[in-house]
Every structure is written in structure tokens, then in C-alpha cells.
Design brief:
By secondary structure, this protein is of the alpha/beta class. 43% of the residues lie in helices and 16% in strands. β5 (126-135), α5 (148-168) and β6 (174-180) form a beta-alpha-beta unit.
Length: 258
């Protein structure tokens, strides 16, 4: 029997990358799964790949009207939720001089407003013992050049995990963060970097990670499964960092001793 047998799960941003890999794993572990995305064709393709039982819902996490509709569809399909994985997010990088008001509004709408109002709309559907997981980032704790807006949104999301965990504990619902380090996903083209810049950045990142590689999306999915399952039944308000040691270990320590 799977670790999520008989459970229901909603994964926002579930059409690609970490969200899709998590949907695959949750299905194998016995859950009934719904995924969201903004592109109807991508949603249909992901749902078909995952299997006919997957519910695909078009939803912009930054639009409260969409979240109202999402809550209604989840209640109609599942009744109640056991796992809510808030993985929908946007990464956009640039120098201080390059930041526009439109960029600010877009990324904060998805990464911060989306967290607040998705939880607000879906929390009433969560069963006691349920788990809410929010995707943050190592950028919420390190100062990396050109990540101003993205890092700020992820730091805000991390703090929301703490405050929401306190409030929702009264309902028996746990709230935790999953913090990916460098991960192989389709996010790259959406960052605003050119292919050459992305290649240069990837090389630098690998040089900083003690394990000297990017994570596979499936490795983040495994961490999400832990937080979703009863294995983490006494874990709330925490951030599980999956970054190959980047933020916890000095990758270049040995070379500095030479």
C-alpha cells in the first residue's frame, strides 16, 4: 500500500518540472491528484501523460477569481483535501536598474499573493492531519546577484509558512516549505536570461554546490512526499532544503586550504 493511499492532493504548477514529478510520485503512492497550470494545452498533455484519473485545472495563482473557481472544482471533485502543494511560481532575474513595476507586480502576484489566497481558499477543505507544502528556494536565504525580486518573494513565502503553520495547527493541518537548490526544470526560458547567460550561470552554480550537480526533479518530489506523508506528522513550520549542500556547506573549503 502506498504512503498516500486514499489521500487527495492538489499540486499547483503541476504541468512541468518539480510539480509534474511530484504528481507522478503521488499517483504511484496511491493519491488522487489534481494539477493546475496556466496553459490549457500543457495541462491536457500533462494530465494525459500522468493518466486518465488526474484532474487538470487551468488556474492563474495570481488571480483570486481563478482561486475561487479552483476551490469550487476541488470541492466538487474530491470533497476534501489531504495535501496541498503550492508549487506554482515565477522566476525573473535582472539588475536593480532593469526592474520594472510590471515585473514587480507579476512576480509578487504569483509567488506571494498566490500563496496567501490559495491557502485562504483551500484551507477550509483540508482534512485534519493534512499537509500544505510551499515551494520556496535557496534564494530566500542567500544574496545572489540579480535575484532581487525572486529572492524577496521566496523570503516572503518562507515567512508565510511560519505564520500559517501556527494558525492552521489549530485545525490539525501542517504547513512546511520545500526549498530547492539548482534543479533541472523547464524554468530557464522564463527567467529573462539568454541561453548563453543560463549556461554561464549553470557552470557557476555547479562550482558552488558540494555535490557538483543539479538535482533531478524527482529528488525534490521525494522530499515533497516526505512532507506530505504521515512520516512528517510532527513537522510543521519548517523548511526542508534540498540543495546538494549549497547553503549548508562551503563547497570550496578544501581548495582554499591548498
Amino acid at each position: 500500500m502506498g504512503r498516500l493511499a486514499g489521500k487527495t492532493a492538489l499540486i499547483t504548477g503541476g504541468t512541468t518540472g518539480i510539480g509534474f514529478a511530484t504528481a507522478e510520485l503521488f499517483l504511484r503512492e496511491g493519491a488522487s491528484v489534481a494539477i493546475t497550470g496556466q496553459d490549457g494545452h500543457r495541462i491536457a498533455r500533462a494530465a494525459e501523460t500522468l493518466g486518465g484519473s488526474v484532474l487538470g485545472i487551468r488556474c492563474n495563482a495570481g488571480r483570486v477569481q481563478d482561486l475561487d473557481a479552483l476551490a469550487a472544482q476541488i470541492e466538487s471533485a474530491f470533497g476534501k483535501l489531504d495535501v496541498l502543494f503550492l508549487n506554482a511560481g515565477l522566476a525573473k532575474y535582472g539588475s536593480l536598474a532593469e526592474i520594472s513595476e510590471a515585473d514587480f507586480d507579476l512576480i509578487f502576484n504569483i509567488n506571494v499573493k498566490g500563496v496567501v489566497f490559495t491557502v485562504q481558499r483551500l484551507a477550509p477543505l483540508m482534512r485534519e492531519g493534512g499537509s500544505i507544502i510551499v515551494t520556496t528556494s535557496v534564494n530566500d536565504s542567500i544574496g545572489m546577484d540579480s535575484t532581487h525580486l525572486y529572492a524577496a518573494t521566496k523570503a516572503a513565502a518562507r515567512q508565510l509558512v511560519r505564520t500559517l503553520a501556527g494558525e492552521l495547527a489549530r485545525s490539525g493541518v501542517r504547513v512546511n516549505a520545500l526549498s530547492p537548490g539548482p534543479t533541472i526544470t523547464a524554468m530557464g526560458p522564463k527567467t529573462g536570461f539568454t541561453d548563453e547567460q543560463l549556461h554561464e550561470l549553470a557552470g557557476w552554480v555547479v562550482s558552488q554546490v558540494p555535490m557538483r550537480r543539479f538535482a533531478a526533479a524527482s529528488e525534490l518530489a521525494s522530499a515533497a512526499l516526505f512532507l506530505a506523508s504521515s512520516d512528517a506528522s510532527f513537522v510543521t513550520g519548517q523548511e526542508l532544503v534540498v540543495d546538494g549542500g549549497w547553503t549548508g556547506v562551503n563547497a570550496n573549503f578544501h581548495s582554499t586550504l591548498k
